[in-house]
Amino acid sequence: VNNEELKKRIAEELALERARRDSEAQKRRLKQEQMFVRDEFGKLLERERISSNEHLTRAILRERAATEEERQKAQRFARQLEEKDRELKKHDAYYKEQLARLEERSAQFYKVTTEQYQKAADEVSARFKRYESHPVCADLQDKILQCYRQHARETLSCSALANQYLRCVNHAKQ
């Protein structure tokens, strides 16, 4: 019985020893697998981090390029605007100068024309004697008009004045 018990005990101990070794081996394999998985996850995370950094870097570079392009475009538009402004100022100065010239010519033309008119008027006055006319028989004319107003319905009562007026006019004609 001792031998058998001993063999049983040895077999049990051997089985326990094997189970313990298997358990330790399994623990080691599990630890190795865990280490492998951690390493793989670490590598995967590192690749993802590098990839996202590359995407971020590319996006930042694209954004910087777009910003630089917009800045250059704004500068180009500012230069064009300044050029147009200078051109408008140049045109404004040119047209003001032309207007001043035209006003000066107009003033000179007016002056010359006025002088010529005055000279021609003086020549005509010097060449032709002014004829001065005075109303003929003005006092009688006034008396006749007054008489006709006073005697609007009796015009024959003013005939004596009318005869005097006709004689005065005929006398002036002669």
From TrEMBL:
Q: Which InterPro entries match?
A: MIC19/MIC25, MICOS_subunit_Mic19
Taxonomy, superkingdom: Eukaryota
Location of this chain's protein in the cell: Mitochondrion inner membrane
Any one Gene Ontology biological process term?
inner mitochondrial membrane organization
**Key word Plastid present in the record?**
no
Q: List GO terms (cellular component aspect).
A: MICOS complex
Q: Which PROSITE patterns match?
A: CHCH (PS51808)
UniProt name for this protein: MICOS complex subunit MIC19
